What we know:
Blueprint: H1 3-13, E1 15-22, E2 25-32, E3 35-37, E4 40-46, H2 50-57, E5 60-67, E6 72-75, E7 81-83, E8 86-97, H3 100-108, H4 112-123, E9 127-142, E10 153-160, E11 171-172, H5 182-186, E12 192-193, E13 199-200, H6 210-214, E14 220-221
Antiparallel strand pairs: 1-2, 1-5, 3-4, 4-9, 5-8, 6-7, 8-9, 9-10, 11-14, 12-13
Helix pairs in contact: 3-4
Bound molecules: iron/sulfur cluster (2 copies).
Amino acid sequence: MMLEDVYKAMEKIGCLTLTTLDGDTPHSRIVGICGCDDEGIYFLTMYVKPFYRQLKKNPRVALCGIYPSSYKTGKNAVGQPTFAPGFTLRITGEAREIPEDEVKEKAEAGSRIHKYFLEDAARYPAIRFFRVFKGKGEIFDFDFEMEHRDHKLLRSRFSFGGERFNEPGARINPEACTACGECFEVCTFKAIIPGETYRVDGSRCDDCGSCFLVCPQDAIELSETI
Ligand code: SF4
Ligand code: SF4
């Protein structure tokens, strides 16, 4: 998945939460993302804000959003709330302030994002421009009622700026699996693929752990984070 596609998902969401660390205390706030190019994802803050000071001390950031807003649409056959199909997006990475001369250089070279920043900075001189220059993340596309397809999830992971990600989902150790089929019976996400030994399609797996709990061979390994 390209960064451009990630940014399209961000535009659909609108504003996202952005989390920074103040010591070991996380702080989240809603931000508008200014844009994206081959070098990363851009946002603004002001150097007079705690947000700025947190970023300068610790560049680690996390972004998160959902589309559409997750309102409940009703109840399913077993009384659980139902949701309209949509997706969540999350990214963990690092952000860096962009020096003024670089902003001007890129604006002169025609970058719309950098021009936008300069226009804003003319009105609000305390504004500072940041880029999430490396990171990894996931788009978690859900259709829990299977309105548009025959399975609930489609998870896609991505990385940029030299980061690497772990594939999503639980894993089955083929050395330990005896193909008894118990995991297949309990997986409501259609993520288990039968065969000589069974496999998990990680893009469909919710990490719910039902298979892990029933496997008589302890053949199932839980997923790793992004
Ligand atoms: S429950 Fe365990 S042993 Fe049985 S098919 Fe699934 S992974 Fe293999
Ligand atoms: S963790 Fe849950 S969703 Fe994933 S394969 Fe196991 S039962 Fe299916």
